[in-house]
Write a structure and sequence with these properties.
alpha/beta, Urease, subunit C, domain 1, TIM Barrel, nine-stranded parallel sheet, four-stranded mixed sheet, 24 strands
Length: about 450
């Protein structure tokens, strides 16, 4: 049912704030424009009250969740392209339509290491997409091929490579047109085929040619993420000094924490004042302009399925740096809350084995992404860390939006932001999902 003047008021609800608090307050939206409103300004300027009032019965009205690392879902793998653009887009759209049942209203399709000739085609197909009844596809996350062989995980070793020609190697693999300097991440409420959108690259700083390419990638608007790496503390710190903003699935595919060289994980405990010449020299950070730049701890991803990281590790990370925590699923194509356990096909003749929220390659003990949904990650996170549900929601909304630089539009309840919303009960279970001011899914 639509309102006659386009104004909707949600009342009797708790609104998550950007600091993680939950506040009892009404929220107004304009369903015609698909945006959140400043209720006082709207009332006094338009002299109108909402035609439609929705009583949420004390439930939580949250910004829609953002999943910035997801490999596929609902039997579609973002990394598999079989030469048919229409079939690939159909799969993308199917994921976008179905995933709203998990509270996700924006996602960043992720492709893992593969044959290099496929990258330009896939990245072009993964430019932003939005539709009235589905989650928004923000752009792409390329995980590989510039990663460390020793920490490859489920990535195919034959496709891994170095960046010997530095930024030209990145352009050669991903396509120069996909790495031009970004302007606005998305113009208007509808994405266009020419919009670059959000771009994230996971790579290992120690791989030949990667470290020196980070500043240029950052200048072009790419979010560089440290992952699948054996970087030392000095190298990891230098990467952040150079512009790296994110750590890919913390604790996984990286060295374990060691008190003498905490490596990538140790970035969470780094001092924001690590910029004096003596400290930088001690860490070996004396090359080029790296030593002249200020240090800011990066955001870090966590897969909170209770398998990829022990609950104690999750709590330790969050306690170290709560403002940088970003919840992800790293989900594979068999993410589907309705899918039973068992053996399921992956690619190249290989199979997954799904056992609850655990997913591994058949015949091995290698974890192969996850099948956990983001709403379950939020609930697990609150339970594992002891933080409030509002604080857990922040890690799936505001924090990832800040990491990507889109917090004016997504992951927030600010006036003017997109009216992408999820209604949760007090235990964090999804009751309904709204995209651009329209209800697109509701629990039966």
């Amino acid at each position: 049912m639509a309102s006659s003047n386009g104004l909707i008021c949600f009342t009797n609800c708790l609104l998550p704030q950007e600091d993680g608090a939950l506040v009892e307050k009404d929220l107004w939206i304009d369903e015609r424009r698909g945006v959140i409103l400043d209720s006082q300004r709207t009332f006094f300027l338009r002299k109108e009250r909402p035609d439609r009032i929705i009583d949420l019965g004390g439930n939580i009205l949250s910004p829609g969740f953002l999943d910035i690392q997801i490999n596929g879902a609902y039997n579609f793998d973002f990394s598999v392209y079989e030469g048919d653009d229409a079939a690939y887009k159909e799969g993308l759209h199917r994921v976008a339509e179905k995933i709203v049942e998990t509270g996700v209203t924006s996602l960043l399709p992720t492709i893992i290491t593969q044959e290099r000739s496929l990258y330009p085609k896939l990245l072009h197909l993964l430019r932003p997409y939005s539709a009235p009844n589905s989650a928004t596809l923000l752009g792409w996350h390329a995980e590989g091929p510039f990663i460390q062989l020793a920490k490859r995980g489920a990535h195919a070793p034959e496709f891994l490579m170095g960046a010997k020609e530095e930024i030209k190697s990145f352009e050669s693999v991903y396509g120069a047109e996909n790495l031009v300097v970004a302007e606005d991440w998305l113009m208007g409420s509808e994405a266009t085929g020419d919009a670059l959108g959000v771009r994230v690259i996971t790579a290992a700083p120690e791989v030949d040619g990667v470290m020196v390419s980070i500043p240029e990638l950052a200048r072009r608007g790419v979010v560089f993420s440290i992952g699948h790496s054996i970087a030392t503390t000095a190298l990891a710190t230098a990467a952040v000094q150079g512009g790296a903003r994110l750590i890919t699935h913390l604790f996984n595919a990286m060295p374990q924490l060691h008190h003498r060289d905490p490596s990538i994980i140790g970035l969470l405990g780094a001092s924001p004042h690590l910029s004096s010449p003596s400290e930088l020299t001690d860490l070996g950070l004396t090359k080029g302009k790296v030593a002249e730049m200020s240090f800011e701890r990066p955001f870090y991803e966590l897969i909170v399925d209770g398998i990829h990281s022990h609950p104690n590790s999750v709590r330790l990370a969050y306690s170290s740096y709560p403002d940088g925590c970003v919840l992800i699923t790293d989900a594979m194509k068999i993410l589907d809350p309705h899918l039973p356990d068992g053996v399921h096909p992956w690619r190249d003749g290989k199979n997954f084995v799904k056992a609850g929220d655990k997913l591994y390659l058949e015949g091995t003990d290698t974890l192969a992404g996850s099948v956990v949904s983001l709403d379950k990650c939020v609930r697990n996170f609150s339970r594992f860390t002891g933080c409030s549900l509002g604080e857990a929601i922040r890690c799936a909304t505001y924090n990832p939006a800040r990491c990507l630089g889109i917090e004016a539009r997504k992951g927030t309840l600010r006036p003017g932001a997109d009216a992408d919303l999820v209604v949760l009960d007090r235990k964090g279970r999804v009751q309904s999902t709204w995209v651009a001011g329209r209800e697109v899914w509701t629990r039966a």
